[in-house]
Specification:
binds pyridoxal-5'-phosphate; TIM Barrel; 12 helices; six-stranded mixed sheet; Lyase, Ornithine Decarboxylase, Chain A, domain 1; 408 residues; elongated
Amino acid sequence: MENSRAQELIKSLHNTDILSEEDSAYIVYDLDLVQTRYSELKDAFPADTLHGIAVKACPLPYFLKLQADRGLGAEAASIEEVQIALASGVPAERVIFDGPAKTRAEIQFCIDKSIYINIDSFEELERVNSLVGANTHFKAGLRINPQIGNGKIGDTSVAGKRSKFGVNLDDYMDRINKAFEDYSWLVGVHVHIGSQGMSVDDLVNGTSKVFEKTKNLTGLERFDLGGGLPVVNREDDLKVGFKTYTDALAKAMPELFSGKFKLLTEFGRRIYSDTAIAISNIEYVKEGHQIVAHLGADMFLRRAYKPNDWYHQMSVLTCNGEQVTNDSQTYSVAGPLCFGGDFLSREVSLPKVEEGDLLLIHDVGAYTLSMWSRHCSRFTPKVVGISGDNTYLLKKRESLEQLIQFWS
Ligand SMILES: Cc1ncc(COP(=O)(O)O)c(C=O)c1O
């Protein structure tokens, strides 16, 4: 999110009573930008596409409900995410259940509710087959690893020669063919290539490799493109919108958009990432060069452990939301946790700040709060949203009762 917009949002919060003194850190979503992202997604794909937005990116029931209201769905990586989505009003037919460790009970639940699942392995395929019985409503897809190689970020690349996920295209085409011949409920192919570290070319190459080899499978009705569209973390990252992506897909595979197949998508990061900022009071400026903030590795796990892969731009404002106009200097930004690696940045240039100023951490709308770590048991922060002149409480700051409940 642009600095000027972030400042505007923070200033407008100061005119409300939604924040209290105990909110030493909080998150603000630009709800108008979220709606714009939904529209961009829907406009870029055929109207009957099922968009299962990745719950793990942003699991707040507030957003799941918003997705449901806009005709969007949810991609769940666990049965718990399936349950949050259903409880938030996402209809069962718009839930996609992925994940490699589905139990028999979880699969049975999906069969009974006709929830679409993407099967991760040949072993799971057999398990599902043993449970389907006479059910004629249930449908499933098979996740296929295109084996095109890893991208820039090893931990979120899932298209190497061996991947944790899916069945290998190059190694098992015969078994894939046979599975579609054998099982009438197997109607879909699923490809997810990686999250953030893959370029659009990688995504298009991997998808078209799988599409070309699977488009004539017996009974194929659905093609699930997964997610993975990267966002701008650093200034020199390429900004890619959904339309640019679908244009590239359509150029490589016109048949994918011919109407012959129902398309499914599972984007997360590109929807939510830049729609939110996190704000922390600067509690101390230690010896003039170490900022001590109220968010650290608890919310920014990836950033703390793999700082080169996961970057967040930072900026500062005064406690009233005004620009800090001092000359810049180099700071480290430490979090509040009790271990030496708890840094948001070891070296960042910011205007000279003082205790009580605000630290802004940009682009935190996806995979930040949803990766919260309980180390040191700090309360999860309040989440607010702004749309036009209206301010909404999306999630309360955690209470002591909730925290004790978590550990009980
Ligand atoms: C199977 C699957 N689908 C969708 C996503 C969402 O990816 P992104 O948020 O990068 O769009 C992920 C993320 O890891 C995933 O594993």
